[in-house]
Amino acid sequence: MNYPIIVDVTLREGIADPEGATIERALPALGFNGISHVRAGKSFRMNIDAEDESSALAIAAALAQRLLSNPVIENATARSAAKG
Amino acid sequence: MTRIGVVVFPGSNCEYDALGAVSALGAEAEFVWHSATHLDGFDGVILPGGFAHGDYLRPGALARFSPVMEAVAEFARAGGAVLGICNGFQVLTEAGLLPGAHLPVSTNDADRRIHRVGTHQRRLSGPGVGHSHKPLFGLLHV
Description:
The structure holds two protein chains of two kinds. Chain A is α+β, with helices and mostly antiparallel strands. Chain A has one domain: Mth169, Chain: A (2-Layer Sandwich), CATH 3.30.1280.10. Helices cover 30% and strands 31% of the residues of chain A. Chain A has a three-stranded antiparallel beta sheet, covered by helices on one side. Chain B is α/β, with parallel strands linked by helices. The chains are: A alpha+beta, B alpha/beta. Chains A and B meet through helix 1 of A and loops of B.
């Protein structure tokens, strides 16, 4: 079977996020108030051939650890992109 | 004559500077394409600056899987001198040949930027990394 998977990669807590901070600082000028703790990240969508969805998620998690994220500074999570 | 390999990735753009600098020091320099699988006959290896693989994903993240990086790791394990400049340095951190990671830098925090550059320099000159001053640095007269 073929499973649609999304991998989200975000900077770990405590790692400076200049992109998120810059976006946050720009928000009041656009009329958006009361928004804090903005963190930028990346999202990867893919289709994975696997026996079942948990196997597909395991493959995505391995890919996320090896390539898509740098575990020293980033967290990665894999989730299903199937429309429930 | 001292022979230095200059590794070229798709997207490197400082390889000619490295080649020229090595030549100016009186050593012989030669380009090594990223698909090369050995570094036989070189006394040192330079990973020059640029934007290997467009810096996509993270700087160095894709370049670290180039065939030549196996050879660079082997070269370093055998005690060979490896110099990573700028993007080349980032490739070495992604490859796990240098500790730590390339941190995002806040462009409006000059103090922090200086601190981080200093952190990299300290690691570069630390024992086990910049341990041997030969063959490239031995040519320098500072």
